[in-house]
């Protein structure tokens, strides 16, 4: 297997993967969305709330704030163990992180942001500092304690480490120069919405720097003479694109997804052995 990093930013990763089946890559993608755990607020205790928002509304907003979770993966118990503890009201330190928020309005409106949350664990804090939570005017006050735990996207999307996880085939475009000559093929070059083709020295060329932008719409096939251009895809080569929430790094998202998938397969094999299959 060969993996090439095409683009990498703090919240965006694009990989070109060769030597993998569609079924395996799609399994990894689905595990990323629904199984890789992150930290998110699950319970909120209100001591005071005289803002314009109901308690439930504020609690919902807090739950959707991404929390840094790279270290939390190893420091806290599994989502399944901690969900049961939370349902019993047992907010133990090996399961939950406490985030406190307190503020009041003044003569001018005061906005409480995500960086006003005070965490009991410096490794678990809002991924972004200026997410607005609530605006207060005099004499409104808010005082609360929020409890965050590890969870999985299949339980609630707030725990998913990605906002987008998609894959696409790598295009394979063949141009038959004997059939595609002169001005008759110029129209397919001009019609390509992604500018994948170039017309050079009377011939249609595929631009290597634009090949991955091809959407395989096959407009070029329809406009050029029959058989002049053939658009297909590589059977074992894909582009995987991840847009991250900021809770986990791309590296940890991918490594954790593979670890989880591997464990599921091991459990499946073990169950088969127990059944004598």
TrEMBL record:
Q: Which CDD domains match?
A: RNAP_D
Give a GO cellular-component term: DNA-directed RNA polymerase complex
PROSITE patterns associated with the record: 4FE4S_FER_1, 4FE4S_FER_2, RNA_POL_D_30KD
The EC number(s) this enzyme carries = 2.7.7.6
Q: How is the cofactor bound?
A: Binds 1 [3Fe-4S] cluster.
Q: By its UniProt entry, which SMART domains does this protein fall under? A: RPOLD (SM00662)
Q: Where in the cell is it found?
A: Cytoplasm
Chain residues that bind [3Fe-4S] cluster: 214, 217, 220
> What is a GO molecular function of this protein?
metal ion binding
Which ranges carry the 4Fe-4S ferredoxin-type domain?
Answer: 171-201, 202-234
Keyword Kinase appears in the UniProt entry: no
Q: List, alphabetically, the InterPro entries matched.
A: 4Fe4S_Fe-S-bd, 4Fe4S_Fe_S_CS, DNA-dir_RNA_pol_30-40kDasu_CS, DNA-dir_RNA_pol_insert, DNA-dir_RNA_pol_RpoA/D/Rpb3, RBP11-like, RNAP_Rpo3/Rpb3/RPAC1, RNApol_insert_sf
Q: Which UniProt keywords apply?
A: 3Fe-4S, Cytoplasm, DNA-directed RNA polymerase, Iron, Iron-sulfur, Metal-binding, Nucleotidyltransferase, Transcription, Transferase
Q: Which cofactors does this gene product need?
A: [3Fe-4S] cluster
Q: Which reaction is this enzyme known to catalyze? A: RNA(n) + a ribonucleoside 5'-triphosphate = RNA(n+1) + diphosphate
Q: Which GO terms describe its biological process?
A: DNA-templated transcription
Question: Subunit composition?
Answer: Part of the RNA polymerase complex.
Give the protein family.
Answer: Belongs to the archaeal Rpo3/eukaryotic RPB3 RNA polymerase subunit family.
Q: What does this protein do?
A: DNA-dependent RNA polymerase (RNAP) catalyzes the transcription of DNA into RNA using the four ribonucleoside triphosphates as substrates.
> Would you tell me the protein name for this molecule?
DNA-directed RNA polymerase subunit Rpo3
Annotated source species: Thermosphaera aggregans
User: Lineage from the top down?
Assistant: Archaea, Thermoproteota, Thermoprotei, Desulfurococcales, Desulfurococcaceae
């Amino acid at each position: 297997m060969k993996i090439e990093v095409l683009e990498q930013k703090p919240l965006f990763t694009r990989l070109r993967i060769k030597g993998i089946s569609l079924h395996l890559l799609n399994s990894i993608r689905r595990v990323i969305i629904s199984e890789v755990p992150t930290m998110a607020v699950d319970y909120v205790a209100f001591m005071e709330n005289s803002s314009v928002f109901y308690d439930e509304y504020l609690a919902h907003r807090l739950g959707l704030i991404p929390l840094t979770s790279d270290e939390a993966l190893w420091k806290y118990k599994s989502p399944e163990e901690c969900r049961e503890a939370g349902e019993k009201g047992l907010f133990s330190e090996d399961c939950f992180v406490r985030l406190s928020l307190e503020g009041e309005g003044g003569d001018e409106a005061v906005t409480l942001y995500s960086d006003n949350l005070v965490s009991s664990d410096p490794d678990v804090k809002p991924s972004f500092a200026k997410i607005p939570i609530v605006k207060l005017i005099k004499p409104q006050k808010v005082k609360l304690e929020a409890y965050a735990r590890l969870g999985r996207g299949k339980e609630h999307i707030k725990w998913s480490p990605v906002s987008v996880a998609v894959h696409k085939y790598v295009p394979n475009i063949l141009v038959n120069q004997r059939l595609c000559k002169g001005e008759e093929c110029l129209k397919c070059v001009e019609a390509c919405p992604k500018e994948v083709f170039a017309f050079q020295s009377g011939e249609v060329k595929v631009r290597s720097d634009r090949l991955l932008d091809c959407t395989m719409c096959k407009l070029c096939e329809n406009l050029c003479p029959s058989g002049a251009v053939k658009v297909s895809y590589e059977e074992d080569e894909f582009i995987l694109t991840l847009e991250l929430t900021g809770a986990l790094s791309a590296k940890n998202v991918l490594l954790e997804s593979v670890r989880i998938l591997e464990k599921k397969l091991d459990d499946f094999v073990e169950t088969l052995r127990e059944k004598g299959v």
